[in-house]
């Protein structure tokens, strides 16, 4: 735990029979650290994305492969893919033109992977997996956004865009137009 200075997020997940947890470190000299269970406790297993002030991570299945997406206030989001032979995550790709991201959430609509990326100042975005990379579907002007949270309720998809400065907004998926439409403002 000596390498973790300022934890900002924790992800817990299983790959095969092994359990892991990831501590996302947002300090200037931080090291996002992957821990692995060894029957007596968790121990540091792999250091990822050193020195980038990571803010959030998301673990999910992408085309049958285990991936981690790390977002940062200081560089574009990066995608790590699990390598079965080395039993480690390796840098696979990055999501261009998306800087100053504070959170990432993965979700699916009709089994197609999407990402919701919250940008504190700028445009938060929804991105769709094309089979090769994530492509922008829609932007949401953001001021003080800390999360763009997808939820599914009664077979309807929603996004909640939080805000430190104004009303939070709820968007609902429009099946006909294949994008999110504003549903209502919420004062929190």
CA(first)-CA(last) distance: 35 Å
The structure class reads: mainly beta
Mean pLDDT: 91
Residues in β-strands, percent: over 45%
**What is the β-strand count?**
16
The helix tally amounts to 0
What do these coordinates show?
- The protein is mostly beta strands and 188 residues long.
- The protein has no helices and 16 strands.
- It has strands at residues 7-15, 18-25, 32-37, 42-48, 54-62, 65-72, 78-83, 88-94, 101-109, 112-119, 121-129, 134-143, 148-153, 156-161, 168-174, 179-186.
- A 4-stranded antiparallel sheet has the order 1-2-3-4, with no helix packed on it.
- Strand 10 (112-119) and strand 11 (121-129) form a beta hairpin.
- The protein is globular and about 50 Å long.
- 31% of the residues are buried.
- The mean pLDDT is 91.
- It comes from Cirrhinus mrigala.
- This is Leucine-rich repeat LGI family member 2.
Give the helix/strand layout.
Elements lengths: L6 E9 L2 E8 L6 E6 L4 E7 L5 E9 L2 E8 L5 E6 L4 E7 L6 E9 L2 E8 L1 E9 L4 E10 L4 E6 L2 E6 L6 E7 L4 E8 L2
Antiparallel strand pairs: 1-2, 2-3, 3-4, 5-6, 6-7, 7-8, 9-10, 10-11, 11-12, 13-14, 14-15, 15-16
Task: Give me a quick take on this structure.
The chain is an all-beta fold and 188 residues long. It has no helices and 16 strands. 0% of the residues lie in helices and 65% in strands.
């Amino acid at each position: 735990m000596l390498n973790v200075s300022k934890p900002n997020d924790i992800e817990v997940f299983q790959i095969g029979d092994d359990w892991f947890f990831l501590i996302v470190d947002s300090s200037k000299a931080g090291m996002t650290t992957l821990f692995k269970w060894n029957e007596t406790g968790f121990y540091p297993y792999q250091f990822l994305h050193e020195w980038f002030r990571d803010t959030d991570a998301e673990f999910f299945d992408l085309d049958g492969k285990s991936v981690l997406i790390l977002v940062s206030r200081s560089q574009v989001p990066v995608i790590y893919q699990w390598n079965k032979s080395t039993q480690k995550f390796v840098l696979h790709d990055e999501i261009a033109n998306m800087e100053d991201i504070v959170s990432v959430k993965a979700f699916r609509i009709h089994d197609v992977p999407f990402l919701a990326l919250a940008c504190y100042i700028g445009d938060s975005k929804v991105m769709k997996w094309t089979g090769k990379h994530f492509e922008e579907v829609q932007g949401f002007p953001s001021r003080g956004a800390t999360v763009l949270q997808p939820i599914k309720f009664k077979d309807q998809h929603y996004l909640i865009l939080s805000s430190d400065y104004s009303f939070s907004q709820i968007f609902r998926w429009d099946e006909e137009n294949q994008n999110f439409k504003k549903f209502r403002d919420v004062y929190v």
